[in-house]
Amino acid sequence: MLNIKPYPTAAAILLLTTALANATPPADSPRPVLRPEGLFTMLTPKPIHRPDNLQALLTAESSGPQPEAPQSGTLSADSENAELPPSSQSHLSEGVEEPAPVDAEVTSSSEPQDASHAGDAPVPPVDVDAADGLSSEDVVEPEPEKLQMPPDLALTRYSAENYTEDRARLLGDLTAKSGNIFETLSARLRLGEFQLAHLLVPEGHSVVADIERDALPRDTALELDVVRDGLKAASGEGEPEYRLLDDARYAEWAGYSYWNAIRHLTRSEFEASEPFLAGAFTYLDNQPASHKEAFLKLILEGAIETGQWTLAKEVGEYFDDYPKLKETAAYNFLIGLAAEKIGRDLDAFDAYRLASNGADIYAQRARLGIVQIGLRTGAMPLEDAETFLMDNALGWKGDDLEVQALLDLFNVSMELHKPVEALLALAKVFRAFPESEAAKENAVTARDVFMELYEKGLSGEVSLGEFAASHIKLVEAYRYAPGFHTAHSMYAETLMDSGATSLAAVEYGEIADYLELADELEVLAVEPADILKAKLHQAEALIAGAQYAAALPVLQQPLASDDLDIVNKAQALQIEAFNNTGEDDALLRVEPKEPTAKILRMRADAYATKADWPGVRDALNKLRSEFSDEVTKRDAAQLLLAAHRAGDPETIQSVLEAYPDIFETEAFKSIASGLHYTAAPLEPLKLENAQSRIARAEGAIRDVDETLNSTSH
Fold first, then answer.
1. What does each C-alpha distance from 235 to 74, 167, 199, 238 come to in angstroms?
2. Which of 612, 608, 610 has its CA nearest to residue 637?
3. Does position 653 have pLDDT exceeding 90, yes or no?
4. DSSP 8-state secondary structure symbol assigned to residue 555
């Protein structure tokens, strides 16, 4: 008798048979789509009648099988021995309870059938609306799926001794399976695990970065998550997102504590690593040697920094099993760090001294530790600390330890009253690490130091030679530092005051040029007025050095400014340059809105050269009205002569009344004897006598010009 194992519920059978019954061959199919031979008959040992509704179906199933009258046709011997295909078994046996054997002689339906399917049972129709009678009590909610923990990767299978062979094999697998997408992804994942085992972080990232996680089975996808999170944690760079390590639901996974500890320790986030350190130390015991060499010292440092001394002792003892690790600078440094934490400075100093002989990062940390302990305890003089830092610590480049060494040198140099050396140390921080916190925090400090240094140079507290030497050392390093153009101007002003006008002009020119360049490259916030002021000072220095022609082009930009004050100063310098080059027409074309006394004198001189006596008179009268306190006896005498030549007796009388002592000198008495008259008697004078007296007055003016030129009110 045939032993048939029916599907556990009639509802599931009904669902399956309905799907099979409704399957119709495609329109373009050359032959009908046949159902699997024997599959349906094995699932249906007896005919299935259509129930009135789904509830009746479930009730019938629960009441047990009911015997049916035998129909014509019996199951053949071949059907008795038929077995489900493996693929069908795998899909149908999952979650199926083993029913009791059914002894029955299975017959076919009385409905007409194709001869090829004579052994199959009929397919009943389904009343979909019958489901409306199903009550909520009959619906069974599926249990929530249990969270699957990630696997523990067997990284110890990749040893350093077999590195070459393992790498060749994995690369060979990747090449051989390149035609199958799933196998290629799996091969890449294996290669990523290999690189994680050997801590080849950049290479590992490049291998697994673009593996499509959704294309992998669940177990394999979790393996990928472990590899990716592990590589990110080991890198110690950036602030990556972690699929597993940021999800506390995976806290039961043994690797959770391990990789979380590593992610924080590689970034020196000791406080954040504290909850994971003990678990990480336990997990490390089953990791490759490369992990022990890289992470054992990190876990020890984390335990020391967080004060977990029991754990620190256990980790320290673990080094006994690895003699080579105990001989490293890292081990000696960590011993020194522990000693320093508990106040045993002498032991710490000795341990740091041993560690400093190495060449790795821990050796550099030991060197800085020696300086810090020496300065804190007073055991190391400042001069020795400076020498030690210069000879030993500054050879380290490229990371925070270089920054720390430079900051230590800055502090030591300031204590030794060596501001130039201190500023040069900070300049290296600004140049090599412009975006670092140290650079941002010390920018104002550097400005305060160089401003104080330059103020001392300007005031004469520092000799000009020492001031110049300091400036030469600092200018290249701080040329684009905020505020340095002001300090640079102090140096140029000092040169100007000392009479080195050409050197001062060069310095002012550099200030203007580099401010323009900094503004163009946007490396510094530059005020346009600062550039124009530097050019004004440059022109002023050139004029002071009698380089009048060279000063004129420098003034073109300030003359075009919208700042009236700058324009006035530029015009004054331009007029002075024209006055000294003899370009009287050019001078007179410059009409300043706010002329100074000096400008009015120069304009009067230019008019006099052209024998424009009304122009001379007008310029000097404006000088009298606007700068009465600045009028000199020479100004008064020149005005008197100009008024006479312009035929302006009223101005002559006004000058004589305003300056009654103008003829107290012998020279002016000569002028007075020829010019002291009232307006009326002057008219009948003959031209010959008038010219004679004017000539005598002009001669007198020339005589006193040199002796009284500097005399002022």
1. 72, 21, 9, 9
2. 608
3. no
4. T
Please check the confidence at residue 272 and state whether its pLDDT lies above 80.
yes
| CB contact at 8 A, 106 and 2 | yes
Q: Is residue 92 packed enough to be buried (19+ CB in 10 Å), middle (13-18) or exposed (0-12)?
A: middle
With beta carbons less than 8 A apart as the criterion, state whether 244 and 253 touch.
yes
Please, which residues have CB within 8 angstroms of residue 256's CB and are 6 or more apart in sequence? 244, 245, 250, 276, 279
* Contact indicator for 652, 644 with CB cutoff of 8 Å: yes
Q: Is 102 helix (H, G, I), strand (E, B) or coil?
A: strand
Q: What does the alpha-carbon distance between residue 213 and residue 449 come to, in Å, rounded to a whole number?
A: 57
375 vs 385: CA distance, rounded Å: 8
pTM (two decimals): 0.67
Question: Of 576, 577, 556, which is closest to residue 567 (Cα–Cα)?
Answer: 556
66, amino acid identity: Q
Take residue 298 and report the two structure tokens written for it.
């990190």
- The mean pLDDT of the chain is 79
| Integer Cα distance of 35 and 378 in angstroms | 95
Query: Taking the domains of the chain in order of start, what are their residue ranges?
Result: 3-127, 161-234, 247-319, 620-708
- Written as six digits, the tokens of 292 are 């022990």
The DSSP string of 673-695 is HHH---HHHHTT--HHHHHHHHH
**Does the pLDDT value for residue 26 go beyond 60?**
no
